[in-house]
Design brief:
Blueprint: H1 3-18, H2 34-42, H3 44-61, H4 67-80, H5 84-100, H6 105-110, H7 116-138, H8 142-162, H9 168-176, H10 179-196, H11 198-222, H12 227-248
Helix pairs in contact: 1-2, 2-9, 3-4, 3-8, 4-7, 5-7, 5-12, 7-12, 8-10, 8-11, 8-12, 10-11, 11-12
Length: 249
Amino acid sequence: MSIFRNFYLGFKFALSYFSILPVSFNSKDDLSSKEILNFMVLSLPLVGAILGIITVLIYLFIENLELYGAVISALIYMILYGFIHTEAVLDVADAIYASHSNKDAYKIIKESTVGAMGVLYAIALVISKVAGITYLLLHNLFIEFIIIIIVSRLSLVILFRIHKFRSIFATQLKESLNQNHLIIAIISITALSIYIGYSAIIILFSGILLSIFISFWIKNKLSFVNGDVLGATLESVEVIMFLLIAKLI
């Protein structure tokens, strides 16, 4: 199978897994192959770019609604990725508080039920995130918004290389990730950031450093890393970067 075919299937897999956009596959497509999983992970920033562009286009269409239109657009962004990363915040918050009581954090994080602390932290995050996106949209900081979304997902790709996972699927993705392809992705996004200018460079380096710090902080609390930790890290990075860019620009 050609590299272009692998990239195409990997990108579709990422789009179907990390968004609610309609994607279909052929019954003969083997999505478990190492090459396709490699491109699935590497496609995360591209998926982010697509979701960001869709969000901005929706906002431009309803821009005449001003604040209302910006809030709706911000919510649509989160709906577009199916709240998959937001859900991780619920589980991670519950697990962290459970660990304070010497309970098994991994057991708590895998439970289907949700605790009060998880709900409260998720609500706080959603409010903060919607407020941040709304501010950026109202001030026409569209490029900055999209770059933040790209970098938050590039950071996850980098975290796949850094961490060991207590998750079969996350470990499989880590083992499938091609280091040379990752370097190319990092160089490409760095070059794009330099071309865009000062704000994009700040977002790139701040976002990556934040993701590393946050993921290790959560790991220190839980003693493990899994997909939920990555999702909570992504959400945290985006909230902080929205605030940082709103403050600096």
